[in-house]
Specification:
The chain has 86 residues and is mainly alpha-helical. It is built from 3 helices and no strands.
C-alpha cells in the first residue's frame, strides 16, 4: 500500500463506481427502490471505511490498512452481486 491518501481514493472510486452502476441498473430494470437501498448501503460502507482509515488509535497500521483494503474488496463484490440480482 502506497499511502493513506491512495487508500482513501480507492475507497472513493470503487464505491463511487458501485453507486453509478446501481443507478444505471435500477433505471434500466425499473427498480428504483431496490437500487436506492443498495446505494444507501454503499454510502454507509463508505462512511464506515473512511472512519476506520482516520482512526489514530491503531497499533499496527500496516495490518490495519491491509484489513481495510480487504474489507473494501469484500463489500464492493457483495454490493455488485446485489446489483446484478436486481
Amino acid at each position: 500500500m502506497a499511502s493513506i491518501k491512495n487508500l482513501k481514493k480507492d475507497i472513493n472510486y470503487v464505491l463511487g463506481d458501485v453507486i453509478e452502476y446501481a443507478l444505471d441498473v435500477s433505471i434500466l430494470k425499473n427498480a428504483p427502490v431496490k437500487g436506492d437501498a443498495i446505494i444507501d448501503e454503499a454510502i454507509e460502507t463508505f462512511d464506515n471505511l473512511v472512519s476506520k482509515v482516520n482512526d489514530k488509535k491503531v497499533e499496527d497500521k500496516k495490518a490495519h490498512f491491509r484489513a481495510i483494503n480487504q474489507e473494501l474488496e469484500v463489500k464492493a463484490k457483495g454490493l455488485v452481486e446485489k446489483i446484478n440480482s436486481l
